Amino acid sequence: MFQTDGYETHPSVLAPSRFEALATHFEAKLAALPEGQRPEHMDVPHLTDPALFEWLLDPDVLDLVESLIGQDIALFSSHFICKPAGDGKPVPWHQDAHFWRDSISPAGDAITVWLAIDPSTVENGCLRVIPGSHLAAAEHTGTADSFFNQETAVDESRAVDVELERGACSVHSAMLVHGSPPNRSTTRRCGYTMRYMPTTVRFLAPGTHRIYLARGRDRAGNDYTPVP
């Protein structure tokens, strides 16, 4: 499914006790957010919270990643995307690779593991994908007030809702066109995106970002930050 559609889903990826520990850790981070800071934008939290490497480098997570991109794996990024009940922001249709092309090359080789901290449903703004759209680059144009400042046009009749139970995950290609609607429901929707790439991908932005060798060995001459 991943090769043909650009994404796949799994009923779980972390052992239950390890998932519950991550969920507890997230709740503490959410409670500590400065007043006025939106919870959708808890980006690259691992750069300031080394405890997150316990889950980002979990062997079960890396086994799943290895099954898709091979045994030489770099950790590229992570992001808690938490849509609060009632006014959670939408994410416009986009390809991740479009936004990462100045940081990694080829950006389309990266993948995202989207781990459901909360149940992710149609009602609370779950991920939506365009199956097969990972096979070609999409044009992006500017957009007004939104999660991103660019988006791509899609035929929404082709869209598939990716509903996930708590603790389940989806995995999608950086080339897959995806997005999500606003959360107007009475329940929160949070996911932890864990982003990886094969070490054949070149890292173009040292000094402004950090990557980590998660498994195997480097194959592109990259400089990796030691895991804390």
Molecular structure report:
This protein has 228 residues and is of the alpha+beta class. It has five helices and 15 strands. It has helices at residues 2-5, 16-31, 53-56, 59-69, 96-100, and strands spanning 7-10, 42-43, 73-83, 91-94, 104-105, 111-116, 127-129, 141-142, 150-151, 160-162, 169-173, 178-180, 189-198, 202-203, 212-215. A hairpin with a 7-residue loop joins strand 8 and strand 9 (150-151).
Keywords:
globular, 15 strands, four-stranded antiparallel beta sheet, 28% strand, alpha+beta, 228 residues
Q: What gross morphology would you assign? A: globular
Number of strands: 15
Q: From the alpha-carbon coordinates, what is the Rg to the nearest angstrom?
A: 17 Å
User: How much helical structure, as a percent, in the residues?
Assistant: 10-25%
The succession of helices and strands, N to C, reads HEHEHHEEHEEEEEEEEEEE
Our count of helices gives 5
Strand fraction equals 25-35%
Which structural class should the secondary elements be placed in? alpha+beta
Mean of the pLDDT scores?
96
**Span between termini:** 35 Å
Regions with pLDDT < 50 over 5+ consecutive residues?
none
Main pleated sheet: 7 strands, antiparallel
